[in-house]
Amino acid sequence: MNQKQLIQFVHDNSYEKAVEKFGLSKGKIWSILKENNSLKYKDVTLEGFKTVYTDIWACGRPMGKYSGTYPMGFMKRLANLIDFDCKIILHLFSGSVHILQNHDTLDIKKELNPKIVADARGKFPIKNNKYDVVIADPPYDSDWKVYGKKLYRTDVVKPYSFVKEAVRVTKPSGYICILHHLSYKTPEGTIRKGMIGITTGPNMRIRLLNIFKKIK
Q1: pLDDT digits (tens, 9 = 90+) for 87-131
Q2: What domains appear along the chain, each with residue ranges and CATH number?
Q3: Which of 45, 67, 161, 213 meets the CB 3.0–4.6 Å disulfide criterion with 121?
Q4: Are 139 and 155 in contact (CB under 8 A)?
């Protein structure tokens, strides 16, 4: 197989068509393109990957009135990776994140107008298996005791306090995405699908996007 022909075919067509033409898995094709620095990001999705997806995303610094908004470009990259089309999505600790169709927000602060006013550290007022994707970007810092109170004026959010509920409200085969400084342990009933470093420029700490897929 000529790798140059494969790379050109993917860029002219799609990963799916390349799978049919060259008889390789989507994950193998992606690996070849990555080795040759020729990734076609807009068509890279987690579906079809048999191993854990790893990468580093260079995003812009968060821009918004509410402290702790997603890094610039982060949601677009995640939407491409998981393919948000027709999926129902829940944002935890979401504040005033921009609401899109089929996107719900959950936050303890009602003044930020989330769709669901609730404490994500407790029981969610949501039925089982409702969402295709749950995204969590909780207040955090290296000492766990200062950051939430200082920046968000909320109590500390323990790293695993919301995980069990996030898994509960996610549909089987859905994704739980956690943006944090920690590499999270794989929650019960899920498998690890992605570990992506998120950078936002000089003098800014690198964060890790943990992605898990619900299997039960």
Answers
A1: 999 999 886 666 677 899 999 888 888 899 999 999 999 999 999
A2: 3-43 (no CATH), 53-214 (3.40.50.150)
A3: 161
A4: no
What's the CA gap between 59 and 179, in Å, rounded?
13
DSSP letter for each residue of 106-157: EES-GGG--SEE--TTS--SS-TT-EEEEEE-----TTSSSHIIIII-S---
Token representation of residue 182: 């920690």
- Taking the C-alpha atoms of residue 82 and residue 18, their distance in angstroms, rounded to an integer, is 19
CA 189 to chain CA mean position, Å: 18
Return the closest-CA partner of residue 177 out of 130, 214, 208, 211.
211
pTM: 0.75
Could you give the CA distance from residue 116 to residue 208 in angstroms, rounded to a whole number? 26
* CA–CA separation, 92 and 72 (whole Å): 18
